[in-house]
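Backbones bend. To wit:
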Amino acid sequence: MSKPLTDQEKRKQISVRGLAGVENVADLKTNFNRHLHFTLVKDRNVATKRDYYFALAHTVRDHLVGRWIRTQQHYYEKDPKRVYYLSLEFYMGRTLQNTMVNLALENACDEAIYQVKTYLQIFQDGGTGTCFLDSMATLGLAAYGYGIRYEFGIFNQKIVNGWQAEEADDWLRYGNPWEKARPEYMRPVHFYGRVEHHPDGVKWVDTQVVLALPYDTPVPGYRNNIVNTMRLWSAKAPCEFHLKDFNVGGYIQAVLDKNLAENISRVLYPNDNFFEGKELRLKQEYFVVAATLQDIIRRFKASKFGSTEVVRMDLTTLPDKVAIQLNDTHPAMAIPELMRILVDDEKLSWDTAWDITVRTCAYTNHTVLPEALERWPIDLFQNLLPRHLEIIYEINRRHLERITALYPGDYDRLRRMSLIEECGQKKINMAHLCIVGSHAVNGVAQIHSDIIKDTVFKDFYEVDPQKFQNKTNGITPRRWLVMCNPGLAEVIAERIGEDYIRDLSQLKNLLKFVDDDALIRDIAKVKQENKLKFAVHLEEQYKVKINPNSMFDVQVKRIHEYKRQLLNCLHIITLYNRKSIIIQAAPGYHTAKMIIKLITAIGEVVNNDSVVGDRLKVIYLENYRVTLAEKVIPASDLSEQISTAGTEASGTGNMKFMLNGALTIGTMDGANVEMAEEAGEENLFIFGMRVKDVEALDQKGYDAMEYYNRIPELKQVMDQISGGFFSPGEPDLFKDIVKMLMHHDRFKVFADYEDYIKCQEKVSALYKNTKEWTKMVIHNIAGCGKFSSDRTIAQYAREIWGMEPSLEKIAAPDDPR
């Protein structure tokens, strides 16, 4: 009889992290030492952690490069349809460990380089936004992500005396070992100037030129040898000014102008659900679109890999070979820019060009909040992009002619559906432009897609119902389970095998083990280990001690009124349950900063109450980012998803928590609705108004004072906040929050307060029964299959892009062709 495997041997055998693809661990170590030697100009004994990180990153990158080149050659040989995913918010996060997981190098690196764990932690991470690119590569799609190579992220958040302070987030200060500059594909982007109409066509002249320099980052699929490309553009000023301007004494001004031009790619604007019409933002949006479309047309016309020779001239076939997905309205300028290229440069007729544009472009909507929808002033467009304004006017003229023919005499409908808003300052509605100029429009959760059809874009849905679809968001299990929670990934693999990493729907097989004491014990053990690690992290980094046996109740959200952090605050004040809150605000949003101050003020009182002790802690963790998420999410017991029904488009944080074994307390909003369908509503803590209840309350009229006067505990909480209990030195500090909640609360916090408190009591009661709590956790993990970004992207591919995903593995560079 064979000897039972040890836990360590089981983990090696399961190979979730994998040794596949590396024939000789010694070779890996040799390569690492070689890169370390070239990284250092000093003695290895004084090498920094950053030196080791870069050496390890270059070692892993060596395994990527051959696959990267082979993939691009494969695409040129097969000439598949390509999809271009345009987003102004690509920022990569921790590329190294994700790459090691996808190439099955993690265990090999562990064996080759003993200190690998330390090196993985030290490099500054960016943000998020690459789940879809990961899935596109894993599904074998010829896909490209396009965006801007920002020098600075949104900001580094610091909490000073309870207030948020912003510091520069310099992403590139240490360089980026993953990116490769591609100056041979630099493209000119034009701004300002004027438009001339000639018998042979239209010319946009006397423009200012900014150069777009591309930087490529490899995006590997999961163990299929496919490596796609994310191309980010950096703004560079043309160099030709130097000698001329120096000779006329204007060199200093020329240098200043150069810096002004390069500001386009300097900083990422925060996504704070509040639109501000700044010229620099519009420049960013056109910059990425103009450079990307030149690149798309070049690649469409090219004959073979690495060739600049033009062989394909028939642009009427562009939609057969190119799909462009507009992620939100930020890349909406792709529609008039593609029209400009086809009509002005390629000399196609308007009707032919419009047919190509509509069949090529598709639009994903991400918000139903009116204040978040982009509306650009006509005056700004006239100055910055005069030719595109003409094109948009012509698109609108033809669009309104069609609507007039369908609904003669319905002038109010014409006003509602126009691309140009005439009320007050004339503005271009970019969402309307996207809908008219795309063949498909999708929301990101079923409830969200229904809302945009029923309310926000109802007029457009009535005209073109076939355009409107749903594509529920998803997350990549490679990053958000295998990488950030390997203990749980291995427990699952022991029961159902590791194929679920490619096909998350297989998680439903866990239901066979829902009553298995061993699985219940293993999942509870992994959760407790993650909580202990996080408790140590809090003590080391924040000097805060928490009881790891307490419930970790977590809300990870940008601060916004509709996400209702204030409802959580009211509960914390009301009940002394165990809490842990993590949130971050966009820097220009006054109410958000006040909410942060209120949270920290509550923490000051609660955490220093000797009677409460360690039974309740309120902790605000500053500067939320990917690396912190990878610690918080696996350690969380309860996930707060408490937005007002009908306001959250989807959410992906809710899915990450669910996959990592946290239970959800939430409203029927965004993806919560589908999570309840998949796991069973009885396995989530659902409370509060549904969308129809919110609509009914709107019709009746929401009166916050009615709830305040009727509910004694709510009245006590509000009186404490308004009376200075949490700000004794400044009693009126939170008067704006109190005024908003009492008189101007669009998101109806008080209406859900009572039900939320009762639901939290159910949470506390169940948490005392570890076995039943963990069984509910298993139901939730088993219900996560739908929420893989692989499923989302497969639906986009088949139903919008006209492409077929493939799990085929292409030959590795060292395999015969």
The first helix runs from residue 7 to 14.
